[in-house]
Amino acid sequence: MASPATFDIARRARGFMPDDEGLALHQAGRVGATVGPLLEVGTYCGKSAVYLGEAAREGATVLFTVDHHRGSEENQPGWEHHDPAVVDPATGRIDTLLHFRRTIEEAGLEGVVIAIVGDSVTVAQHWRTPLGLLFLDGAHGHEPAHADYDAWSPFVALGGLLAIHDVFPDPADGGRPPYEVFCRVLQGGEFAELLPSRAGSLRVLQRVKHAS
Ligand code: SAH
Ligand code: MG
User: Fold this and answer.
1) pLDDT of 125-183, one tens digit each?
2) How far apart are CA 141 and CA 122, in angstroms?
């Protein structure tokens, strides 16, 4: 069972994961963990990694979490999701790695959550391990959102899950690319949506057909 204190750490962590969506992600992580290890694209300060890492711990597997820790476009100074607290004063650049380490340390998940620091697609090009769950929450521009899906989704094992964050059917609620990726996945026929897993902008799908 997850300790409520663990989720409190997720709630307090910096980041972009409302609690109801985080809890739904945790549930998806528990299902995915029965199939294989979990992998997240877009760590930031480790908020979603606590929800998923707790699921990995419960399922006796691990969560890999990939990020270059330099922030997405919308995290840069002058943009909507900029937080000056994650700027390294020595260089003036975003560096969320230390924030991530603190979050995971506090949550007691250092043995379960494994950070991979680097560009998502570059890491994927060297990846080989089938996944029980893939969570896409990296860069949200058109090109990188589709590139992350193309690079990582073939690794989702049959019966494994694909979770996508920031899916906004109404353009008034947010950017298009994650929603477009979600539509593309549905049309591709390899994944089917697990409707009860919907929460806010989180969508969860299951691989029902081998990657072509
Ligand atoms: N899941 C996080 C939020 C992620 S924000 C939470 O729960 O709060 C998106 C993250 O994607 C940022 O930290 C950014 O650095 C990362 N990112 C953007 N483009 C990337 C790329 N090409 N490779 C690796 N990480 C990337
Ligand atoms: Mg997100």
Assistant:
1) 999 999 999 999 999 999 999 999 999 999 999 999 999 999 999 999 999 999 999 99
2) 17
pTM for this one?
0.98
Which of 26, 69, 99, 140 is catalytic? The answer is 140
Whose CA is closest to atom 4 on ligand 1?
42
Please report which ligand is nearest the Cα atom of 122: 1
Is residue 4 a contact partner of residue 36, using CB atoms and an 8 Å limit?
no
Cα gap 195→43, rounded to integer Å = 25
Residue 126 Cα to ligand 1 midpoint, Å, equals 19
Say what the pLDDT of residue 1 is: 67
Name the closest ligand to CA 118.
1
In percent, the amount of the chain with pLDDT more than 90 equals 97
Query: Has 140 been annotated as catalytic?
Result: yes
Q: How far apart are CA 84 and CA 38, in angstroms?
A: 30
What pLDDT is stored for residue 2 in this prediction?
A: 73
Residue 3 banded pLDDT, cuts 50, 70, 90: confident
Measured CA to CA, the distance from residue 17 to residue 118 in angstroms comes to: 22
Q: What is the number of other CB atoms lying within 10 angstroms of the CB of residue 165? A: 22
